[in-house]
């Protein structure tokens, strides 16, 4: 599997540093208020488990599964809800946890849907941000790392469902895409 990689963009220590830093900022922002952390499946799972260890307030977790990519590396602009939340979020303070913000189509649809459920507040934390790719009018309040417009895998992020188990973020050799 590791032979498919071109380079490492963020190693394990850098990711751990980002989680600590974001966790401290979020802890300070909520100042003891309870919150609901919503992980967007499946890409955010590793980031979510590491990040919430560094958030020092009472929190609940829930998950939502949406699909905007259909196995390739380009967004189709469509978002399909595959799994909805398991509990009511009315009146709650929500923190959406995402792996990567690219065109913003996915998060735009999710935030519009969740805001319509009368939440008290809604913020977004994303590990990675590709600002040059943005199409929808949306930004994350908390960003781990801005990256250039390149397809990345690892630490939850996949290419055709592979590479999610890598403990770091990296790029793939071009020949992997042309297979
Ligand atoms: P957006 O709707 O274009 O912002 O796409 C966001 C979603 O696309 C993310 O949650 C990822 O699942 C996926 N995605 C975007 N860029 C990458 C990437 O470089 N590698 C892997 N998945 C990506
Ligand atoms: Mg995702």
From TrEMBL:
Cofactor annotation: Mg(2+)
Signal peptide: none
Record keywords, A-Z: Cytoplasm, Glycosyltransferase, Magnesium, Metal-binding, Nucleotide-binding, Purine salvage, Transferase
Listed pathway(s): Purine metabolism; IMP biosynthesis via salvage pathway; IMP from hypoxanthine: step 1/1; Purine metabolism; GMP biosynthesis via salvage pathway; GMP from guanine: step 1/1
Domain of life: Bacteria
The EC number(s) this enzyme carries: 2.4.2.8
Cell compartment(s), UniProt: Cytoplasm
Keyword Nucleotide-binding: yes
Domain Phosphoribosyltransferase, chain residue ranges per copy: 10-159
Pfam family, any one: Pribosyltran
Catalytic reaction(s) noted: IMP + diphosphate = hypoxanthine + 5-phospho-alpha-D-ribose 1-diphosphate; GMP + diphosphate = guanine + 5-phospho-alpha-D-ribose 1-diphosphate
Molecular function terms, GO-annotated: glycosyltransferase activity
Coiled-coil regions listed in the entry: none
Glycosyltransferase recorded as keyword: yes
InterPro entries: HGPRT, Hxn_phspho_trans, PRTase-like, PRTase_dom
General function of this protein: Purine salvage pathway enzyme that catalyzes the transfer of the ribosyl-5-phosphate group from 5-phospho-alpha-D-ribose 1-diphosphate (PRPP) to the N9 position of the 6-oxopurines hypoxanthine and guanine to form the corresponding ribonucleotides IMP (inosine 5'-monophosphate) and GMP (guanosine 5'-monophosphate), with the release of PPi.
Family under the similarity heading: Belongs to the purine/pyrimidine phosphoribosyltransferase family.
Name of this protein: Hypoxanthine phosphoribosyltransferase
